[in-house]
Amino acid sequence: MSSEVRKALVIVDVQVDFCEGGALAVAGGAEVAGAISRHVAESGYAHVVATRDHHIDPGAHFSSKPDFVRSWPVHCVAGTAGAEFHPRLEVGPLHEVFFKGQYSDGYSGFEGVDGTEHTLTEWLNAHEVTDVDVVGIAMDHCVRATALDAAKAGFTTSVLLDLTAGVSRATVESALTDLRAAGVTTTGTPIVV
Per the domain annotation, does 90 fall within a domain? Predict the structure, then answer.
């Protein structure tokens, strides 16, 4: 196996329902989609993959009286327009897409599977990826969980905060503390309105 650094970009949940006008919109989501598109065009990643919330029956994750901590309004239901990638996410053909949260909360992209039921860990290892940059929505929820799992799986992990949008300043600060404690590198500043 080569000792060469092989870096992948993991784009987390840049979907219609998480951007302005969506069922669970995060302010700045559409702006992040466009910024990620520009970043991919200017960068030379070995691989670019994405995760998608793809809820079928996620149980208590959906609630008519959500607490916005562990329960949420209905969003990203499999087969709906809200579950599609945002139209401003223009990154060309993705190397793979991982669907998460079919029957669970599905915060981390590492809980997802591709069309052949391979996990993100399995796919990255099969492609000899050593380093991952994580971007997307929301920084303080699914980006955080995905980056923590990437580090736990042994990948050198960075979160490019300029390419993320967060829900609130309090939860973003908490997420930053968790990421840094896990050895995840963070650069830039997330969009938090």
Answer: yes
Is 76 among the catalytic positions? no
Active site residue 7: no
**Which residue among 53, 100, 105, 140 is the active-site one?**
100
Whether this model's pTM surpasses 0.90: yes
Strand residue runs (E) in the chain = 7-12, 47-53, 96-100, 131-137, 156-166, 185-187, 191-192
Catalytic member of 13, 53, 105, 133: 13
Query: Which position has the token pair 């079928």?
Result: 56
User: Per the domain annotation, does 185 fall within a domain?
Assistant: yes
Is residue 65 flagged as an active site residue? no
- The answer to whether residue 2 sits within a structural domain is no
- Which candidate in 19, 53, 142, 149 is catalytic? 142
Boundaries of domain holding 111:
7-192
pLDDT tens by residue, 133-142 = 999 999 999 9
Q: Domain holding 51: CATH number?
A: 3.40.50.850
